[in-house]
Amino acid sequence: MDGRLVYISSMRGKDAQIDIRQIMEKRLTITGSMLKPRDAAYKARLAADIEAQVWPLIAKGAMKPLIYKTFPLEQAAEAQQLMESSEHLGKILLRVS
Description:
3 domains, 4 strands, alpha/beta, single chain, 38% helix
């Protein structure tokens, strides 16, 4: 409730179907971002800000990725299928023995 939905990728194209009533009931704010049209100077500033503000949190363990599923390297094709399905939340990892 009262959250934000942030789109940072459009792997399936520019069109999307949404249930506007569900968004209204949850009082969501929808926004998006795309780095591709930004110039190199903007991207360099963003990278510097991430290094200064985000990496220290990761190093302290205060921010951790959400891991959805881990596959052995031999099952990379199955991991790819899962990723393409977009039925996951979080990262899909390949384990190298």
